[in-house]
Amino acid sequence: MLAFRIVILAAFAVAAIAFPRAAIAAEESCPGLVARRGLPIVPASLAADAVQLTYIGHSTFLFETPSGVRIATDYNDFVRPRTTPDVVTMNRAHSTHYSDNPEPGIKRILRGWDPAGGPARHDVQFGDVRIRNVVTNIRQWGGETTLRDGNSIFVFEAADLCIAHLGHLHHTLTPEHLKQLGRIDVLLVPVDGSYTLDLDGMMEVIASINPRIAIPMHFFGLSTLDRFLARAEGQGFTVERRPTPTLTLSRTSLPPTPRVLALPGR
């Protein structure tokens, strides 16, 4: 059973924050947002305009859509949801981001790299959620060699929300990356500052995407998380520490200015 839900209220009294946004045509909408339009909604415990998000730990989150579709990010053998997801995404930087032994009940497995070589290409409609990816490069473990197309930023479009998981991001984003991403409402951000992108670079990525909510992940203890939160506060973000790992998100309840929400992971 997932932890009780916390509804993000729309009325946040915060100072205006001006972050630069890339001049892209897709700014006003998430490209091809078709999730749940024209699709029957199976009765579920969520409202039709809400998505539930639970931070499981490391880089793994569990989403539940209004029709009850469950999705796990960076699914691996070490940190898993207690319930079997319908769909999983994976990345390949380390074994804590993928699994060669997924649970048999999983209906769809989306790898952020193509084992045959070249970029992975995903644009999948599963129930009331659309899942697509934007490929990036990674550094080879133990060296400076670049592995092209080794990581995917997965974008989940459901209930008129666009949620992006940066995966094991190793570099800042180009205008083409930002164009492919389009409008992102909620951004899941690796904040370790070493294995992925350094903190200066990651803050640049957050500013360029300009989400309404940024949620840190991939941190190693509270000291690593605290370092990121201090940096975010220093750059004008309102920072909240939530006591439970579960949020209920809806487009109407997004804060009016960018905000960082830190969730505890098990």
Automatic annotation (TrEMBL):
Residues in the signal sequence: 1-25
Domain of life: Bacteria
Keywords, sorted A to Z: Signal
KW Signal (keyword) present: yes
Keyword ATP-binding assigned: no
Transmembrane segments: none
Listed SUPFAM superfamilies: Metallo-hydrolase/oxidoreductase (SSF56281)
Pfam families: Lactamase_B_3 (PF13483)
InterPro entries: RibonucZ/Hydroxyglut_hydro (IPR036866)
Gene3D superfamilies: Ribonuclease Z/Hydroxyacylglutathione hydrolase-like (3.60.15.10)
Name of the protein: L-ascorbate metabolism protein UlaG (Beta-lactamase superfamily)
Protein's organism: Enterovirga rhinocerotis
Taxonomic lineage of the native organism: Bacteria, Pseudomonadati, Pseudomonadota, Alphaproteobacteria, Hyphomicrobiales
